[in-house]
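Hi V.,

Quick status before I head out on leave. The structure for the redesign project is tokenized and pasted below; the design run finished overnight.
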């Protein structure tokens, strides 16, 4: 069993939902997972207590949450000492055309933090129009109209979700397999069956 930390930053909650799905996938594989919103991180927090770490952040106006950037910078040595992964949630990752932009956000982040995660996942986010104020709603509707030609159907509240949950689960499974291999750990549970140690 591997102890995983899944730490994330979010503006409107989508990265938290992605983090929860990743945590569920790791948990179903029999691992021990702690999921934390960076805004709720205890003051005395030791990232070194975990065997492997996943960090997630979303993009607002071209940037990740500053608290995530700061966390990664100040814990870079500890992060570079264990298997790690980063996941990014944005509108850019909702389309093929936005791919390069999404990759660019991460490249800038990697250059600023000097952290080199072993795996990186890019996921489309969500536009929670129902939670935005008037101006933000107007602005995001215009941006989305320009950026996304094949708009998914809105839910009852008018919100639009772009996240591909199969991709999120596949990413989590890939990270788990990588970490198990790196640490020489047999997954304790596969497909609901307990495997002999
Ligand atoms: C004010 C605002 C600015 C945004 N700016 C960008 C951006 O520059 N690039 C991008 O790809 N997505 C952008 N997005 C889309 C968000 O990344 C997307 O809504 C994501 O799901 C947010 O995740 P969160 O709820 O975890 O914060 C923006 C969203 C909002 C509301």
């Amino acid at each position: 069993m591997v102890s995983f930390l899944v730490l994330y930053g979010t503006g409107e909650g989508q990265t938290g939902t992605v983090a929860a799905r990743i945590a569920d996938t790791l948990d179903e594989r029999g691992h021990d997972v702690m999921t934390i919103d960076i805004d709720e991180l205890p003051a005395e927090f030791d990232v070194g207590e975990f065997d492997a770490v996943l960090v997630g952040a979303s993009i607002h106006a071209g940037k990740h949450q500053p608290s995530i950037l700061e966390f990664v910078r100040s814990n870079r040595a500890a992060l570079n000492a264990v298997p790690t992964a980063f996941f990014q949630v944005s509108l850019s990752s909702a389309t093929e055309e936005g791919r390069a932009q999404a990759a660019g956000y991460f490249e800038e982040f990697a250059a600023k933090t000097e952290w080199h995660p072993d795996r990186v996942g890019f996921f489309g986010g969500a536009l929670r129009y129902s939670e935005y104020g008037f101006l933000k709603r107007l602005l995001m509707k215009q941006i989305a109209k320009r950026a996304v030609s094949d708009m998914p159907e809105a839910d009852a509240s008018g919100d639009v979700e772009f996240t591909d949950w199969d991709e999120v689960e596949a990413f989590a499974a890939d990270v788990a397999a990588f970490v198990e291999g790196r640490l020489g750990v047999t997954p304790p549970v596969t497909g609901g069956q307990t495997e002999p140690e």
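Above is the designed sequence. The pocket of flavin mononucleotide is lined by residues 10-15, 58-62, 89-92, 125-127, 136, 140 (CB under 6 Å).

G. will cover questions while I'm gone.

Best,
W.
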